[in-house]
Amino acid sequence: MSSNLFDALKEACTPEWRAYVEHPFVKAIGDGSLPLASFQHYLVQDYLFLIAFARAKALAIYKSETLDEMRIANAGLDALLETEMALHVRLCAGWGIGQDVLERAPEALATVAYTRYVLDTGFKGDLLDLYVAMAPCLIGYGEIGRSLAAVPGALDPGNPYAAWIAEYAGDGYQAIAEQAKADLDRIALPRVSMARLERLTGIFRTATRLEADFWQMGLDRAD
Ligand SMILES: Cc1ncc(CN)c(N)n1
C-alpha cells in the first residue's frame, strides 16, 4: 500500500510510467548517443512547454479554495518561473540557443497536446485534478534526473548531456520535485476518495503518456 498519492498513481500506471521514464530519448541522454539536433529541438519545445505550464500553475492559484492553498500554488509558480526557467535558459545558452530563437519558435503538436490537456483538466476540474495532471511533469523529471546521474559515465565531460542531467539531478530541481510530491498530498487530503481514484488515475495516465510523446517528438524532431 503506497504511503502517498503520487506513489499510488504511479503504481496504478506502471507500464505508462516506465514508457515515460525509460523512453529511448532518456536512455540516449544517459549514454550520450542522442543526436544533437533532437536534443536542441526538445530544448526549444521545452521552453514553450514551460511557459504554458506556468499558466497552469497560475490557474492553480485561481482554483485554490483557501489562502493556504493559494500560497502553496504561488510557491510552485515561483519555483517554475525563477528556478526551472533560469535552469532552462542557462542550458539553452550553453547550446548557443538564444532568447530570440526560443521566442520565434512555433509550438510542435506534442507541445500543444500536452499543455492544453493540463490546462483543460484544470479548467474543467478542481484543484486536485489539476495537481494530478501536473504531477508526472514535476515529479517525473526528478526521478529521471536521479536515475540518469547514477548511470556510469553519464556525468562525465564526454557526455554532451551531462549538464542537463546535473541540473535535473541537482539539489535545486530535486527540492522542487520533493515539494511537488508533498503539495499533492496536502491538496488531496480534503478532496480524495476511493470513488475519485479511478478518475484521478485516468488523468495521471494521460499526462504520463503525453510526457512519453514529448520525448518522442524530440527524437522524431516533429513539428
Ligand atoms: C515536458 C517536460 N516535462 C517535465 C519537465 C520538468 N518540469 C520539463 N521541463 N519538461
Describe the 3D structure.
It holds the Pfam family TENA_THI-4. Belongs to the TenA family. Pathway: Cofactor biosynthesis; thiamine diphosphate biosynthesis. InterPro entries: Haem_Oase-like_multi-hlx, Thiaminase-2/PQQC, Thiaminase_II, Thiamine_Salvage_TenA. This protein is mainly alpha-helical. The protein has a single domain, classed as Heme Oxygenase, Chain A. The chain contains eleven helices and no strands. The chain has helices at 5-12, 14-21, 24-31, 36-63, 67-94, 99-104, 109-124, 127-149, 162-169, 171-188, 194-220. The protein is globular and about 50 Å long. Bound molecules: 5-(aminomethyl)-2-methylpyrimidin-4-amine. Residues 46, 49-50, 84, 137-138, 141, 211, 214 line the site of 5-(aminomethyl)-2-methylpyrimidin-4-amine.
How many DSSP-defined strands? Answer: 0
Over all CA atoms, what is the radius of gyration? 17 Å
For the record, give the distance between the C-alpha atoms at the N and C termini, rounded to a whole number.
41 Å
CATH top level?
Mainly Alpha
What's the overall average pLDDT, rounded?
A: 95
Q: Helix content range of the residues, please?
A: over 70%
Shape, per Cα inertia axes: globular
